[in-house]
Amino acid sequence: MAVPTTRRDRWLALALLLAVIAAAYLVLVHPWFTVPLQAINADIATLQERQQRVQAQLQQRGQVAQALQQVRSALAERPGFLREATAESAAAALSSRLQDAVASASPGNRSCVISNRSPLQDTRADAAFPRVALQVRLRCGVPEMAAVLHTLETGSPRLLVGNLNLLAQRFQQSPNEAGTGLDVSFELVGYLQPDALADGNAASAAAPAGLAAPVPPAGTGLAPAAAMAVPADPQATHDDASRAADAAADAATDAAGGGEEDSHED
């Protein structure tokens, strides 16, 4: 005999069916299909956003190129690196620029004078840019010192002032000096472009190599290759010179003795 179903049993069966369907979705469908598709959709959204940014940047290409050209023109008019090809010439240019700055701040060196300036060696082994520096010592008044530092740091090419030491004192070592001010020491630093320094070194190395070979005088019987030969051993060169000198002295003695015998015979 069949058991009659009630309304409650039908709802319970429907709930169990829904629970089985949900469990099957969570176990079979969601981890294997839904999660990968959601990740793909997220990647697509990220790529679309990136593409929109790239398109916006490409639309600004003309403005960016114009701004870059303006910046390059400004840098060409105001270079940051020293123009000289070697460190020695750059140090001389730094010294000249310091002298001009002091003369501009204090005409006649009445309130500012250079007491010492000496080049510093660049001891950095792994530096990207060659460094040229001067150790400077000045005796200046306060306004003149400020003017000198402002002229050095705002000029072109770009220079840096480091290790600045200020000492207030009274001094008058010459009649033109006012007698009050600052005793200042600092390092004046500039930088060279690496390619410029390499070109300068190559030019200086090529200059001795390009000298013409010495030509032996006529009648010596020496070929140019023999005249160019240089002894490898300095001691051998010294010994050869000593033997040649002794031989010349003996020949002179023999010649003098022969002359005396001829005079006695006469």
Spatial strand sequence of the major β-sheet: 1-2-4-3
Mean pLDDT: 75
Question: What's the overall geometry?
Answer: elongated
Instruction: Give the structural class.
Output: alpha+beta
Distance between the termini: 178 Å
Q: What string, H for helix and E for strand, traces the elements in order?
A: HHHEEHEEHHH
Figure out the total of helices: 7
Unreliable segments of 5+ consecutive residues: 207-238, 258-266
Give the tally of β-strands. Answer: 4
State which percent range the strand residues make up.
15-25%
Q: Rg from C-alpha positions?
A: 44 Å
Sheet having the most strands: 4 strands, antiparallel
Fraction of helical residues: 55-70%
Written description of the protein model:
The radius of gyration is 44 Å and the shape is elongated. The chain has about 270 residues and is an alpha+beta fold. It has a 4-stranded antiparallel beta sheet with strand order 1-2-4-3. It has helices at about 5-60, 60-75, 85-105, 140-155, 195-210, 225-230, 235-265; strands spanning about 110-120, 130-140, 160-170, 180-190.
Give descriptors for this structure:
266 residues; alpha+beta; 7 helices; 4-stranded antiparallel sheet
